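We emphasize that the prediction below concerns an isolated chain of 88 residues; any contacts that depend on oligomerization or on bound cofactors are therefore not represented. The input was used exactly as deposited, without trimming of termini.
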Amino acid sequence: MITKARTEPRTYSYSWSGEIGGDPADELARCFVKNLGAVFGVRSLSGIETITDVGPATLSRILNGHAWPDGYTIARLKGRLGVHLWPA
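Result of the prediction step, given as a token string:
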């Protein structure tokens, strides 16, 4: 089955991760990225990679709104970092 490529998250708002999204799914992803960014405030990309086995390129693409985090990446980050990233 071929699926249509999704538009990059950053195209949904002028200021990715800083502006509330209109669609509930977009808003959940934005909040996840904002929470992940807060973790990065105290750790480097390589430090996060060491803990989670999620590569720095993947992390950078998610943080900068070029890619949607998939379920595996979300689970890996939450489980290995031990912090709540997904909004309630």
